[in-house]
Amino acid sequence: MSTAQLSGLRKAAILLVQLGKEHSAEILKQLREPEVEALTAEIARLENVDVDTLDGVLEEFQQLAKARKYYVQGGVSFAEEVLVATMGQDKANEVMQRLSASMVEMPFEFLRRVEPKVLLTYLADEHPQTIALVIAYLPADQAAIVLSGLLPETQAEVAHRLAIMDRTSPEIVKQVEAHLERRLSTVVQAADSTTVGGLKPLVDIINQSDRTTERMILDGLEKRDLDLAEEVRAHMFMFEDITGLDDRAIQVVLRKVESKDLAVALKGVREDVREKITRNMSERAALSLADEISILGPVRLKQVEEAQAVVIRQIRMLEEAGEIVVARGGGDEFVA
Span of the secretion signal (predicted)? Predict the structure, then answer.
């Protein structure tokens, strides 16, 4: 599949998975909540992406990154001149067009890359007002093919609504755009494909994120798809899941975690979590930890979550190294 047929959201999801969990987690921290929700949901929906598309997305990202760098250094003219010198006039024109589109994207931009006859198939059973709204944003040649392919009675109704259309709420436009983007995300994928998305990369990314980003992602997924959110949670390791580790694993973890991080991480946790930790320590070490916790006094929730993230990352590293085994819920287990 050509990258021209992919939405910006789908390209971004493919790119994040290819960048790996640590880089992806850092990127998600910089985004707004709606963007994080949309991207993580798209990553979860990714299954098979053909190799050519994968290469195309990475190449397009590299080209756009170069073009943006030149653009920032010297404006549009400078960017175009450098690209022409680097890759020739035709290729430079393509990159500059994509750069312009990425900087100012019109509503329903992703539909411009869909074959008109394919688009007609998806629009034909939509409400005439929706069809009219979409056609208003399409290039004239693409809109003409869609309109001409509708049933006569629908054609007339759409044409009438298009003619009398004045202003439409941006919120309505966004809702219709999101609805159609979901529907068209299932458009045929090539047979020669490789799995790049799904639950595992999403869980890996979340496990590398800070707790604020983690909550944002999971809350967003719950709003969009409760079953999917529950499946993601089932495959994640939460701090309270320490109670599910066997005693030997707990002892290995304790040898790797700084006492000050452990003390902060245990502030305000359930008693069974704290008891699971202390019973795997010597009596002297357990008393020392209790003293350290009491001396801390009130601690900001963010500090507690950061300390818990340190412990969780250590558990993940030990699991990946094969030094401990972490039981997973929700059916199939992930193999690190």
Answer: none
